Amino acid sequence: MTGHAKVLIAAPVYDGKDYCMKEWRELISKIDYPVIDYLLVDNSETNTFYERLKSEGFNIHKIPRR
Q: How far apart are CA 34 and CA 4, in angstroms?
């Protein structure tokens, strides 16, 4: 087999954990692996957090809060 296996880093997020997103981004940026995908799933009450993370280039999906 040639190449590298693809790695997915996925995490549930919501605006209540915004305080640690900067540190999280810094940590994942230090991962030295050639093929990584990121997936965030947001269930914040509003779309503000979702829109901000999307504008920062994250692959993010919005799900309704129950």
A: 7
Q: What tokens does 3 get? A: 């190449």
pTM of the model: 0.78
- Are the beta carbons of 25 and 46 closer than 8 angstroms? no
Q: What is the mean pLDDT of residues 6-23?
A: 92
Q: What value does the mean pLDDT take over residues 5-29?
A: 92
- Average pLDDT, stretch 2-10? 85
**How far does Cα 28 stand from its chain's mean position?**
10
> What DSSP assignment string belongs to 36-51?
EEEEEEE--SSSHHHH
Are 3 and 29 a contacting pair, CB within 8 Å?
no
